[in-house]
Amino acid sequence: MKFCGVAGLALALAACGGEAPKQEEAATEPPETLAAGLYEVSAEVTALASTDNTTPATKLKQGDKQVVKACVGEGGKPEPALLAEEGDKCEVKNSYIRYGRMSAQMSCTRDGAQGLVMPAMAGSYGDGTFEGDINTLTYFSADGDYRMTRKVTAKRVGDCPAGGAESAKAS
């Protein structure tokens, strides 16, 4: 009998609760793909370490900051300059840029170094912006191999010039 009284009291209190709590507004869905256009990318070297106990074969040092401009093509395809170290010749080998998630792997060569520079980015994007980390590993045939992490943020600053990002550098 005591149980019925307690259960009845609990039911009565629950009924007096007033309005049901409002559900959070649905989060804004990210665009299906990264918007095409000219992007300004700010990067900071947050980690740099030798992987072969020699001086890393890069001009960058931990704490260095850089700003580059590069284009994203139709369908969200980034130019390699968005992720590469300055002067490297790169091609995007693999990428997934959909529904707010951004992942891209590249293979690069560098003048004066035999071997490969392999940057890979993992991050997220929104409406005309992206951010993430670029982790780079090198595989040189001589000394200088390193592992580096750069934190990047980017914003769309306009349309790509007719000549691509190279034209933007001149302005």
Strand order of the biggest β-sheet: 2-1-7-6-5-4-3
Radius of gyration: 25 Å
Describe the sheet with the most strands: 7 strands, antiparallel
Q: What fraction strand? A: over 45%
Following the backbone from N to C, one meets helices and strands in this order, namely: HEEEEEEEH
Mean pLDDT: 85
Report on this structure:
This protein is mainly beta and 171 residues long. The protein is 12% helix and 47% strand. It contains 2 helices and 7 strands. The chain has helices spanning 2-15, 165-170; strands at 37-50, 65-72, 89-98, 101-110, 113-126, 129-140, 146-158. A 7-stranded antiparallel beta sheet has the order 2-1-7-6-5-4-3. It is elongated and about 45 Å long. The N and C termini lie far apart (85 Å).
